Every structure is written in C-alpha cells, then in structure tokens.
Amino acid sequence: MTGGCLCGGVRFELGEPPRSASYCHCKHCQRRTGSAASAQARIDPGSLRITQGEELLSSFAPPGGWVKIFCSVCGSSLFSRPPGQSEILSVRLGSFDADPGVRPAYRQRVESAASWEPIPDDGLPRYAGPHPEHRTSP
User: Fold this and answer.
1) E-strand spans in the chain?
2) Please, are residues 90 and 39 in contact by the beta-carbon 8 Å criterion?
3) Structural domain spans, the chain
4) For site-directed labelling of 63, which of 7, 32, 81, 130 has its Cα 20 to 30 A away?
C-alpha cells in the first residue's frame, strides 16, 4: 500500500494494512485541513516506511495534540504521531494512492464540530472528546 503528497516529493508505503480509521472534529484538525473534520487511518508501529522525500517532511506540535507531519514543499498533511513519541501512528486517508481498505468507524471530538457543517447522520459512534482508547487527537 503506497501513498504520497500533492507535489510527489514525499512517498511512503505501509508493510501492513491500516488497523482502523476515524474522523476527528477538533479545532486542530479543522485548522490543519481547512475543513470540518480530518479522516485518518491508524497504523501499527513500524509499518510505515518513507520511500522518498523524508528530508521534505516538517512537523508542528500543537499544544495538547498529536504532532502533525506535512510536506514542506506543497503543504500536504500526511501523518501524525503522539506527543513525546517518534513513531508515526496515523496516516491521512487522502494521502493513499488507492483504497486503504478501512473506513472511518467513529467520530471523535464532536463537541468541537464546525457550526457551518452538520455532522452527517451516518450511524457512526460519536464521542464528545477523544475516543476512549486515545488521550489526544490524531
């Protein structure tokens, strides 16, 4: 499974399929994406390999959130990792070249949902804050 950024400078591959996916409605994700929510896949530690452009990656550590990793050339949001850790554990669904094989299974941080875009009635579980298994947003 492969993917990359908009300009093609950063490329990656996963050695194992993503284990789950979700939507996050927090303000960090809204501002990072310019949209109402972010869709991302959780991956197993060690399954991601940057195959091209690692030197192009930049990061931003928002207070109280996961570290956001993006292409410094085109600005594509690609990955995130928990604060204080070096291992990437989340990949943006839109960065995969093909179907990643997982679908978002829940929505988290809906207390911060954008007022200008109602959350669709899609039947997914909703959590006011982070998913119970997580302490910070991806």
Assistant:
1) 2-4, 11-14, 20-24, 38-42, 48-52, 57-60, 67-71, 77-81, 90-92, 107-108, 126-127
2) no
3) 2-127
4) 7
Angle 120-65-43 from CA coordinates, rounded to 5°: 70
Pick the CATH number of 2-127 from 1.10.3720.10, 3.30.565.10, 3.90.1590.10, 3.30.470.20: 3.90.1590.10
| Alpha-helical runs (H) found in 1-138 | 27-33
Distance in angstroms (rounded) separating the CA atoms of residues 22 and 93: 9
Residues of the chain with confidence (pLDDT) below 50 = none
Question: How far is Cα 135 from Cα 122, in angstroms, rounded to an integer?
Answer: 24
Specify the pLDDT at position 78: 97
pLDDT at position 67 is: 93
